Amino acid sequence: MSEVADHIEERRAQLSPAERRVAEVVLRDPECVAFGTVARVAERAGTSGASVVRLSTRLGYPGYSGLQAAVQRAIGQQLRPAVERIRDMHPSAATPPDGAPDVLSRTLGAELDNVDRTLSAVDAGAFERAVTLLADRRRPVRVVAGDAEAGVGAMLASALALVREDVAEVGGSDVAVARRLAGSGPETVVVAIDLRRYERWVVEHVTRAVGEGATLVAVTDGPLSPLAALASVSFAVAAEGAGPFDSHVGTLALANALVTGVAGRLRRSATRRLDAVEAAWREAGALVERP
After folding, report:
1. What is the pTM (predicted TM-score) of this model?
2. 58, 60, 100, 286 - which has most CB atoms within 10 Å?
């Protein structure tokens, strides 16, 4: 979806509220656009067919058919790598319980697609800027994540803290979050992770921190996210689950890539830091060794 998403990002400020709702459908449910009618897209967006057509032309396409063709091309490019990987895999020798093969197959396809779409959409320049910000040891890093993404946020903060100092996960009550982000200046880097539906406390506290001068790296679901509008660097993750809930596998893959980039940038100091942590763990007997 990079071509269409890029057009939406470029024209975001020019979109009317109705056109923004249509754009959200384009980004969140591209299959609806690729295989649906103008009326179907308008219904999903809660607006009129005229708004669907206006968005198409505003994005530079010759009407809805042009937008539909662009989305179809993007879907084909996104799904092909996942399909090829699935075909290359060898079936397991084990026989799962009834129903499990279908669930496992659908989950495998969805998660391969999420990782592929997330990492393939990353702009190399944006990734380099994010790694540079996160690897600057003079800058404190604060990680803020919505409730559903809290696990990924905790992992990112924990992993970054192992390779550099002054990294903290920020959460809890409004009072606690405000206290932890108070005084965020130009040297502070805030990493915000939240997908639609966006949590008000995340958006409000991050907005305040950016207003005080902090630099925002946003991990969200597209250019129409309120976090993307505030960010110096923004990444869009794919989060379609095989079941009823969003997937966080693509988000986790992006977080792992950022940590890998920072660790590579800080190789010498990170090695010394990890050696010290490992020695402390062993001295404290904190880990159970494998027999």
Report:
1. 0.74
2. 58
Rg from Cα positions in the chain: 21
CA dist 124 and 131 (Å) reads 11
Domain final position from 64, 89, 114: 89
162 pLDDT higher than 90: yes
Closest CA relative to residue 17, chosen from 60, 71, 54: 54
pLDDT digit string (tens) for 73-105? 876 655 444 445 455 544 543 445 555 678 888
pLDDT for 94: 44
> Is residue 132 domain-shared with residue 217, that is, in the same domain?
yes
Q: What single letter denotes the amino acid at residue 220?
A: T
Both structure tokens of 92: 């397991």
b/e code 269-291 from CB counts within 10 Å (16+ = b) = ebeebeeeeeeeeeeeeeeeeee
Q: Which domain holds residue 129?
A: 124-280
Confidence of residue 2 (pLDDT cuts 50, 70, 90): low
